[in-house]
Specification:
This protein has 335 residues and is of the alpha/beta class. It has one domain: Ribonuclease Z/Hydroxyacylglutathione hydrolase-like (Metallo-beta-lactamase, Chain A, 4-Layer Sandwich), CATH 3.60.15.10. The protein has helices at residues 9-13, 57-70, 87-90, 93-100, 108-117, 123-133, 138-150, 225-237, 255-276, 283-290, 297-316; strands at residues 16-19, 22-28, 35-42, 47-50, 77-81, 103-107, 161-164, 169-172, 175-181, 190-194, 199-203, 243-246, 281-282, 320-325, 328-333. The strands form three sheets. A seven-stranded mixed beta sheet has the order 1-2-3-4-5-6-7. A five-stranded mixed beta sheet has the order 8-9-10-11-12, with no helix packed on it. It has a three-stranded antiparallel beta sheet with strand order 13-15-14. Helix 2 (57-70) links the parallel strand 4 (47-50) and strand 5. The longest helix has 22 residues, at 255-276.
Length: 335
C-alpha cells in the first residue's frame, strides 16, 4: 500500500495525472516526439511500472517528484514491464531497478535484440551486411553506428532483464492484464490488454496523433514486418478495447478508427513504392527518390526501413522480385 496522494507541481502542470487507478507520468526525451508516457499503479504485490522514459537528469527528478506526490517510495516498486526495448521505454529501467530492486520484464524477442544490438560492443559489424544489402555505403553505416553509440547514455545503466512471454498475465491497478504481441515497430513489441476492463497499454503501436515507424531495421529479423504488423492489428480489432493508453500522447478510445487510419496509411505507402519502382533499384536509392531525405542519420534509417518493409511486402505478394548483385539487393517490378 502507498501513502496519501499529495498533488504538487507535477499534478498542477499536467505532467502527472490519473487515468482511473493508473498514474501517467509524462517524461521528456531528446527525440522528435519530445515526450513519452510512463505508467505507475498498485498491483497485487507492491507497485508496478509500465515503460520508464530515457535516462536523463530531468526525468530522474520527475520520477522522484512523481512518487512523492503519489505517496510512495522507490522501494514500493516491485515490477517494471517494458513494451519494447527502445531507449524511450527501457531507458530508465536500470536506474529504477537500482533504486527499487524491482524485476524488469522485456518481451523475449526484444531481449534478444537488446543483447545483440545494445548490450554489446560490436554494433557496427552487427549491422554492416544489412546496411550494405539495402544500398548504404560505409560512411552512412558508420554514421548510424556512431549515432547509436552516442545515445547509449540514455539507457545506462543496463537493467538485469527477465524475458516476458506471450500470454503472460499480471495485475495492475486492480485489473488483470495479459501480454499480446504486435510486432513491427520492434520485433518483440507487446501491448498489454486488460482482460475485464478493456484497457490497452499500446506502447508505440497505437498513438492518437501520429504513426510511428513500422519496422526496426537494421535490428529486425522479421522477413515481412508489414504483413506481421497488419495481421496483429487485425487481431486487435477482435478485442473489446475501451481505452488505449499510448506510449506517447494522450489516451483515446476510438481504437478501430485508429487502426483503419494506420492500415490505410501503410497501403497507400506500399502502393507509392510499387508505382515508384520504374527501373531496377536498391532500397536506399528508391527511398531517396520517393521520400524526402533528411540530414539526421536516424531519420535516414527510418526512411530506408519503411521502404524496405514495403518492398518486402511486395515481394511476398509476388508483385516485385529481388536479386543480389555485388552484395546489394536490387528490386524490380514483375511484368
Amino acid at each position: 500500500m502507498g501513502g496519501r496522494v499529495v498533488p504538487g507541481e507535477l499534478f498542477h502542470k499536467g505532467i502527472l495525472y490519473q487515468q482511473g487507478e493508473v498514474y501517467v507520468l509524462r517524461n521528456t526525451m531528446p527525440f522528435p516526439l519530445r515526450e513519452n508516457n510512463a505508467f505507475i499503479a498498485e498491483s497485487d504485490k507492491g507497485w508496478a511500472v509500465i515503460d520508464t522514459g530515457v535516462n536523463t537528469r530531468e526525468n530522474q527528478q520527475r520520477w522522484t517528484a512523481a512518487l512523492k506526490e503519489i505517496g510512495i517510495s522507490y522501494r514500493h516498486i516491485q515490477k517494471i514491464y517494458v513494451t519494447h526495448y527502445h531507449h524511450d521505454h527501457l531507458g530508465l529501467a536500470g536506474w529504477l531497478q537500482e533504486k527499487s530492486q524491482a524485476q524488469v520484464f522485456l518481451p523475449q524477442p526484444d531481449l534478444h535484440t537488446f543483447q545483440t544490438f545494445i548490450n554489446g560492443d560490436q554494433y557496427g559489424s552487427a549491422i554492416r551486411n544489412q546496411c550494405f544489402q539495402a544500398g548504404w555505403n560505409q560512411v552512412l553505416t558508420e554514421t548510424l553506428a556512431e549515432d547509436v553509440n552516442s545515445i547509449d547514455i540514455l539507457i545506462q545503466p543496463y537493467p538485469f532483464l527477465t524475458a516476458l512471454s506471450p500470454d503472460t498475465s499480471f495485475n495492475l491497478g486492480g485489473d488483470l492484464y495479459t501480454t499480446y504481441p504486435v510486432p513491427g515497430h520492434s520485433d518483440g513489441h507487446y501491448v498489454f490488454v486488460g482482460v475485464d476492463n478493456g484497457w490497452l497499454f499500446g506502447g508505440d503501436n497505437l498513438i492518437k496523433h501520429t504513426i510511428l515507424h513500422l519496422t526496426d531495421w537494421p535490428h529486425t529479423r522479421l522477413v515481412n514486418p508489414l504483413a506481421d504488423h497488419l495481421a496483429a492489428l487485425d487481431d486487435l480489432r477482435k478485442l473489446d478495447i475501451s481505452l488505449v493508453l499510448p506510449g506517447h500522447g494522450m489516451c483515446f478510445s476510438n481504437i478501430l478508427d485508429r487502426i483503419d487510419v494506420i492500415q490505410q496509411h501503410h497501403e497507400k505507402r506500399k502502393n507509392q513504392v510499387l508505382q515508384g519502382l520504374i527501373d531496377s533499384s536498391s532500397a536506399w536509392d528508391l527511398a531517396v527518390q520517393l521520400f524526402r531525405d533528411n540530414p539526421y542519420i536516424h531519420i535516414k534509417r527510418l526512411i530506408l526501413a519503411e521502404t524496405l518493409a514495403y518492398l518486402n511486402a511486395l515481394v511476398g505478394q509476388q508483385q516485385i522480385a529481388v536479386e543480389e548483385r555485388a552484395g546489394v539487393n536490387y528490386y524490380r517490378r514483375v511484368l
